[in-house]
């Protein structure tokens, strides 16, 4: 039972993150990746800036791992979130989960991204080509008033 | 004295990343938030849209809060990770 | 709307397959990978041998792509199946799907692997360390009698 | 004359990858399978566990089959891809 959690400033390595969850006894690996889109409501996004309350973010990511293990029989879980400037088309988060059977890892990866978006303290600012910018708000965030 | 951390929009509005402030050692969530808003009035525009964390865990809006010297409070606007 | 389908004898390249489905307008990529396990019912698996009815396999993989597009709004789909000898712990299939929103690609990748297992003519033989071997049968295969 | 392809266990049992055989041009799925089993009796052990494909599409077990010169029939044991 292994949980790997990281918040890092550099580019996420899909191959490496996936390899941390493979094991000779696990047949299925599900991976979910969020890439940064180049537009929002028709405005062209120039770049993205992420910041995190790093120790709490990691703590909450470990809590997500534990919640997954309470619900599904999975083997290994890896999740890495990138912070700092993230160029358009690059990944901001990669979640990889292995399980003996595919149903578990597929359901778990979906739960993982839903829950990360709801409870992990990370913030994204979209910076548009017209130099305006906006802090985004996940719809999964329960204390968002609107 | 507790440490207070500001992130994202709350950091931009307060103008600081972190500070040390004096708050009541026993209070409600609402008291604590009001106290922080008094000391950082620029946060008023997002006051309906903030949660507080104490030592890396979210505080419930209807909770009573016991604070100790050196505790870490974070002002957390709506998150947008993932 | 792009579908990439391949049946190949060499190692599958996760990074490359995933990159074929990314696009500046697509935020979510879901990937599912099957790795070969080293045991079956307590017998140690030495190696795996896959064979395919290659043109029909590709045709059915394209049909899976079309079924996905009938059901979900996804952007790009890539699926590659490896054949020949596949060492234990290496991947036999990688499916990657991008979509503007995460729910679609997550559901679609699950449907994709379920349907591939039901209709794509590919066969796996497990070769055990005691030199015995066995053709496997997917439980999803409808003309399997037992 | 149609081309017939064998895969996996059916290939091992028949001893060949492919062959050319003569079959009725109009028949039922059941007739066609019986005809193939007569020409490849070693397949009998998996006869309950086989589907046929015609030109890269599965044939339904209750279908009528129209065959033309050069058609490709495949003998398909239970699949195990993925």
Structure summarized in a few sentences:
Chains A, C: Pathway: Cofactor biosynthesis; molybdopterin biosynthesis. The complex is a heterotetramer, with two copies of chain A (146 residues) and two copies of chain B (82 residues). Chain A has 146 residues and is α+β, with helices and mostly antiparallel strands.
Task: Specify the CATH architecture of chain B.
Answer: Roll
CATH architecture of chain A: Alpha-Beta Complex
- Helical content of chain B stands at 10-25%
Estimated structural class of chain A: alpha+beta
Indicate the CATH class of chain A.
Answer: Alpha Beta
SSE order of chain B? EHEEHEEEE
What's the total helix number of chain A? 3
The CATH superfamily of chain B appears as Beta-grasp domain
Write a structural description.
- The complex is a heterotetramer, with 2 copies of chain A (146 residues) and 2 copies of chain B (82 residues).
- Chain A is of the alpha+beta class and 146 residues long.
- Chain A has a single domain (2-133), classed as Aldehyde Oxidoreductase, domain 3 (Alpha-Beta Complex).
- Helices cover 29% and strands 39% of the residues of chain A.
- Chain A has 3 helices and 9 strands; from the N terminus they run βαβββαβββαββ.
- In chain A, a hairpin with a 4-residue loop joins β8 and β9 (133-135).
- In chain A, α2 runs antiparallel to α3.
- Chain B contains 2 helices and 7 strands; from the N terminus they run βαββαββββ.
- In chain B, the strands form 2 sheets. A 5-stranded mixed β-sheet of chain B has the order 2-1-7-4-5. A two-stranded antiparallel ribbon of chain B has the order 3-6.
- The A-C interface holds A 14-15, 18, 22-39, 88-89, 98, 100, 102, 106, 109-110, 113 and C 14-15, 18, 22-39, 88-89, 98, 100, 102, 106, 109-110, 113.
- Chains B, D: InterPro entries: Beta-grasp_dom_sf (IPR012675), MOCS2A (IPR044672), Mopterin_synth/thiamin_S_b (IPR016155), ThiS/MoaD-like (IPR003749).
- Chains B, D: Keywords: Molybdenum cofactor biosynthesis, Nucleotide-binding, Transferase.
- Chains B, D: One of its GO terms (biological process) is Mo-molybdopterin cofactor biosynthetic process.
- Chains B, D: It is an enzyme of class 2 (transferase).
């Amino acid at each position: 039972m292994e949980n790997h959690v990281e918040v890092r400033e550099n580019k996420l390595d899909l191959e490496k993150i996936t390899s941390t969850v493979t094991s000779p006894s696990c047949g299925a690996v599900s991976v979910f990746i969020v890439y940064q889109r180049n537009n929002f409501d028709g405005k062209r996004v120039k770049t993205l800036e992420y910041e995190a309350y790093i120790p709490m973010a990691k703590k909450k990511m470990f809590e997500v791992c534990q919640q997954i293990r309470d619900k599904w029989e999975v083997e290994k879980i890896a999740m890495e979130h990138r912070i700092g400037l993230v160029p358009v088309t690059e990944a901001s988060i990669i979640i990889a989960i292995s399980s003996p059977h595919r149903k578990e890892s597929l359901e778990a990866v979906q739960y993982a991204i839903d829950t990360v978006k709801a409870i992990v303290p990370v913030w994204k600012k979209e910076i548009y080509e017209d130099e305006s910018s906006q802090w985004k708000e996940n719809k999964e965030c329960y204390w968002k008033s609107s | 004295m507790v440490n207070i951390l500001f992130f994202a929009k709350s950091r931009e509005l307060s103008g600081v990343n972190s500070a040390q402030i004096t708050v009541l050692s026993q209070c409600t969530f609402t008291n604590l938030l009001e106290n922080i808003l008094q000391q950082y009035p620029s946060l008023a525009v997002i006051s309906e849209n903030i949660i507080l964390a104490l030592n890396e865990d979210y505080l419930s809006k209807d909770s009573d809060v016991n604070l100790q010297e050196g505790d870490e409070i974070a002002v957390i606007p709506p998150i947008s990770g993932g």
